Amino acid sequence: MRLRVEFTTEPFDLDEAPAHAVVAREVIQSAELDAVDVGPFGNTAEGGADEVLTAVDSLLRRALASGATRVSLQVNVIGEEGR
User: Entry's InterPro entries (predicted)?
Assistant: First the structure.
């Protein structure tokens, strides 16, 4: 199964990326995912279910430990692995 995760972390800071946002992006960019897109107001990534779920676990733990007060995320099934 393939999944797509979309997420944001808060609080926002338009002048400089907060530590929790930097950590969340590093987690996603270093995970074994494809179609990674990071931006100032939202981030998305796609990959196999195990890879996405492992990345989401790390993302939540590390972003919260780095000062996030809210993490909004959505996970969608986008297809079967290998199709």
Answer: MTH1187/YkoF-like
Which distant-in-sequence residues (6+ apart) come within 8 Å of 26 by Cβ? none
Under 8 Å between Cβ of 5 and 77: no
Rounded-to-integer distance, Cα 46 and Cα 69, Å:
25
Using one digit for the tens of pLDDT, what is the confidence trace for 3-30? 999 999 999 887 888 999 999 999 999 9
* pTM of the predicted model as reported, rounded to 2 decimal places: 0.88
Contacts of 21 (CB under 8 A, 6+ apart): 9, 13, 63, 68
Domains defined for the chain, CATH in brackets: 1-76 (3.30.70.930)
For the segment 34-58, what is each residue's pLDDT rounded down to a tens digit? 889 988 778 999 999 999 999 999 9
